[in-house]
Structures are given as structure tokens and as C-alpha cells.
Design brief:
mainly alpha
């Protein structure tokens, strides 16, 4: 049960920052590419 809270508390700030920068971006990239890069970043952080 604690792991669920850890995952939620780890993802919420990341998603908030992502949404903030997506709204401020003057030349936005495709949502698919952003989702791929975001997912790869999550996967890269797992072993750390």
C-alpha cells in the first residue's frame, strides 16, 4: 500500500511540471512524442 503512495507522490509533481511547460510552450511538439519521451524518462529513473 505504501508503494502506491510513493508512486503517486512521485508522478504528481512530474505531471504538474509537464502540464505547466506544455501550456507555456510557444511551439508545441506532438502529444505522442511528448508521451514517448515522458515514458522513457520514467523507465530510465526506475533503476536509479
Amino acid at each position: 500500500m505504501n508503494y502506491l503512495f510513493y508512486i503517486i507522490f512521485a508522478l504528481v509533481p512530474s505531471v504538474i511540471w509537464l502540464l505547466f511547460f506544455l501550456r507555456k510552450d510557444a511551439h508545441p511538439e506532438s502529444n505522442r512524442m511528448i508521451l514517448i519521451v515522458f515514458s522513457l524518462g520514467i523507465l530510465a529513473a526506475l533503476p536509479a
